[in-house]
Structure formats: structure tokens, C-alpha cells
Design brief:
There is one protein chain. This protein is an alpha+beta fold and 329 residues long. It folds into 2 domains: 136 residues, Roll (Thiol Ester Dehydrase, Chain A), CATH 3.10.129.10; 120 residues, no CATH class. The chain is built from 6 helices and 14 strands. The chain starts with a helix and ends in a 5-residue tail after the last strand. Bound molecules: zinc ion (ZN). The site of zinc ion (ZN) has 8 residues, from loops.
């Protein structure tokens, strides 16, 4: 059975989709000239950043020996040449793509996520060529529901050209850049739990002796009984001699902050964000990851002396942590 309300809702959806479909094929921009010609420095920076060491992009002598006959830009740099600049913003408010976005936001699809990008390369670009591009709205999907929420996929297409003459049609298509976003309404989240337990300790056959030590407020370090090498975290064998035989020594509890980060994200409900995580070099010479307590996260410094303590987070969870001590201590 279909109720009157459902029929009305379907009609409203169909009407809305028809409005969206009117945008398909509309041009947003035409003949926009790239800010820079294809050039050696940008290619070199890009190739270095990507770790692409192919000399055809940077070495003119080598490039002469290839079938290109000269330096070419990496095909996947295509989007680099059509970047509009960091502070340039988007096409004006009266452009079709902006009107389309306004329409979907007004309809409640206020969230946005980029979903995928496809490019085609018709031929390599050479030094000194300046591309120009047109942008158009290619497709707007019907309403879809994904893991994120419900909304419409919008695909824009940028066609990239090199001029071959002065006339409007005198240009060669060298690549296409297709970009798809989802404008959506997020799923309603379940109400947050009141009790926010921290993640539990991971106890397995290797780590159990370590956690047993923590329960007795001892920080144990594993020691190879064959060669004496210390190791932390616990593991089945010695990294130095491969022996499977071991015993433990108890850490004295003093160490030095070797490195640290501040966690801002993801926002785990059980943690007071942001918080400091440090790699502590124990005076015994092994390193361990832990929280730093007793000072604000932004006062944690490399080289700080710290002392071990044990924090009882809840009935079942005790964890080691470190607190700064006087440099003299
Ligand atoms: Zn060993």
C-alpha cells in the first residue's frame, strides 16, 4: 500500500530531480587560461614530491633520446596546470555550478564529500605550452543513499586544451578531468553512550607477562637470556640473536622523552582531547609509548625527564603513564 504522504513525497522528489537535471550540460567557464605555462621548475618539484625519477621529465639530453624528443610533463600533473590559485575562489555566484550547489544545500543536502576523480590524457604536454580549459556540469544523479547519508552525486567535467590558432574552435583537446562529489544529508547518529570506556588492553600470549607486571605496578622489560638484549614491547623472539628464551627485568621508572605528538583527532570519547603521546627512552635503553600526565599537552618537550606512575582508569583498566620530574631528580 502506498499512502498519500508517500505519493506526495515521491512527486516532490521527482520534481526536484527534474530541476537538478536542467543543469546537466551547462558550461560554468570557457576558455580559462592557465596561470603558468608548462614549465621545468613545477615539473621538477612535482616529480620530487611524488618520487618519480623518470629523467624524461627533467633531463633534456635524455629526453632527446626518447620518442618524445624533448622534455614532457608527467601526464598525471594535468590538474596542476588548471589550478586556479590558492586564493582565487570558485567561479562567481551566478555560475551554474554555484546555483546548483545553492539549490541542493537549500534542499537540505548541506554536507559535501569528494568521491572520485577520473582523468584522460590525449597527449603529453611540452615545456612552454599554456593550456586553457572549459568547465561544465556533466551529470547530476537521482537521490542515492550511501554509508554517509542521502544525497545527489554531481559530476563536473573540465576539458583541457592547447590553442592551435586564434579561432574559437582552433584548439586541441589534450586531457579531461572529471570530478565527482556527493552533496548529502548525513545519517542521524545514535545518541552518545554515557559511559565512555577507554579501549581495553591487548593481552595475548606474548604481552600477558607485561600486563601482569602492570597489575603489580611494575614496568617489566623483556631480556634475552642468550645475549642479554632488552626489548619492549614484548615479543616472542630476540631481534639480535633470534633466541626464544627470555626473562624480565623491572624498569627503574625514569626516562627521557625521545619524541612526542599531540592527538587532536580522531576524537575518541574516552579521551580528553587534545592529549600528548610520547615515546619515552627508559634509562635502561629501550623505548616505550605512553601518555604524559601532569602537564598540558603543549608543554611536553623532547628531552624532558619523566617518571613512571600507574593510572587506574576504571575498575578493569590500569595503565602505565609518565609525569615530568625535576631535571635534577
Ligand atoms: Zn638475544
Amino acid at each position: 500500500m502506498t499512502t498519500v504522504e508517500e505519493t506526495d513525497a515521491q512527486a516532490a522528489k521527482a520534481e526536484f530531480l527534474a530541476r537538478l537535471k536542467e543543469f546537466e550540460g551547462l558550461h560554468c567557464e570557457s576558455g580559462v587560461l592557465a596561470l603558468d605555462p608548462v614549465n621545468g621548475p613545477m615539473i621538477r618539484h612535482w616529480a620530487e614530491a611524488m618520487g618519480d625519477t623518470n629523467p624524461v621529465y627533467t633531463d633534456a639530453e635524455f629526453a632527446k633520446t626518447t620518442h618524445f624528443g624533448e622534455i614532457v610533463a608527467p601526464a598525471t600533473m594535468l590538474q596542476v596546470w588548471i589550478m586556479r590559485g590558492l586564493h582565487a575562489g570558485q567561479p562567481g555566484g551566478d555560475s551554474p555550478v554555484q546555483r546548483l550547489y545553492d539549490l541542493v544545500v537549500e534542499a537540505g543536502f548541506g554536507s559535501v564529500v569528494a568521491t572520485n576523480c577520473e582523468q584522460e590524457y590525449m597527449r603529453p604536454l611540452r615545456l612552454g605550452e599554456t593550456v586553457e580549459y572549459d568547465q561544465l556540469i556533466e551529470t547530476v544523479s537521482e537521490e542515492k543513499t550511501t554509508g554517509l547519508g542521502t544525497g545527489h552525486f554531481i559530476t563536473t567535467l573540465v576539458n583541457i586544451f592547447v590553442r592551435t590558432g586564434e579561432g574559437a574552435e582552433e584548439r586541441e583537446l589534450v586531457g579531461t578531468h572529471r570530478f565527482r562529489i556527493l552533496r548529502y544529508t548525513p545519517h542521524k547518529r545514535k545518541p552518545k553512550q554515557e559511559f565512555k570506556p577507554r579501549p581495553r588492553r591487548v593481552v595475548n600470549r606474548d604481552s600477558k607477562p607485561f600486563w601482569d607486571g602492570v597489575d603489580e605496578e611494575k614496568l617489566l622489560i623483556q631480556r634475552c637470556t642468550e645475549c642479554g638484549t632488552l626489548r619492549l614491547p614484548f615479543g616472542p623472539g630476540c631481534n639480535n640473536c633470534a633466541s626464544l628464551e627470555w626473562d624480565t627485568v623491572e624498569a627503574g621508572g625514569l626516562g627521557t622523552i625521545y619524541s612526542h605528538v599531540t592527538m587532536h583527532y580522531p576524537k575518541f570519547p574516552a579521551f580528553d582531547m587534545p592529549y600528548a603521546v610520547a615515546l619515552i627512552e627508559l634509562d635502561e635503553g629501550v623505548r616505550t609509548l605512553s601518555n604524559i600526565v601532569g602537564i598540558p599537552h603543549d608543554e611536553v618537550r623532547i628531552g624532558m625527564r619523566v617518571a613512571l606512575e600507574f593510572v587506574q582508569h576504571d575498575a578493569d583498566l590500569k595503565l602505565p603513564a609518565f609525569r615530568p620530574v625535576d631535571q635534577e631528580a
